[in-house]
Fold this sequence. Notes:
By secondary structure, the protein is mainly beta. It has one helix at 3-18; strands at 32-37, 46-54, 57-64, 67-74, 86-88, 97-104, 108-116, 122-124, 126-127, 134-138, 143-153, 156-166, 173-183, 186-198. InterPro entries: Integrin_alpha_N.
Amino acid sequence: MSRNLLRAVTATAVAATALVLLPLGSASADPVRTAAADLDGDGRADRVTLSQVDDQTQSLTVVVGDRTATATMQWWAPATGVQPVRVTDLDRNGRQELIVLETVGANTDTFSIWEYTTSGSLRRVTRLNGEPVQLYEGGGVAAHSGYECDDNLAQQRVLVKLDTLRDDNGVTYSGTRTGYRITGGLARVLWTVPISHVSSDDPVTATDPGTCA
């Protein structure tokens, strides 16, 4: 088997098992979750472990070759146990990122994005001003939030965030869809599309995180 073919087969296997979306209501209180991701783009799967440290903290550890890197982040839902890490490639550069659930709210879940750097550390993806990028899912009847990826722009991937709130009429929703380009650990806004007074089942309010796998 050629080297290129081996890399392709390995990358396909990693991607096929990377993004597992489980409803939180069915999750067990597991203090440890493991995943496989190609964090350095060499075509080989690296080990990812997410562990609960205490009632408010979780630890993300990756093993890449002979290097180990660890980062800690908040965890607000200890009764459910830590949740599976979502593996993605938000910039399509072959170096996968990790999406970690940090907070389980009454109606909305909050995630952070992490990447493995060339210096061998884990780095949180931020905006240009240093503010951490957070992804949201849910919202209940008061809001609709979510994220997905769009690969239609010149073979480059765009992270799309949906943020809407219910209007005062109690029936329709307004907000935005915002597209981000993720490069070098930074999220840059490419465009923002306003959403105005649409129904809850309008396609513009739909998102599919599976498109980021």
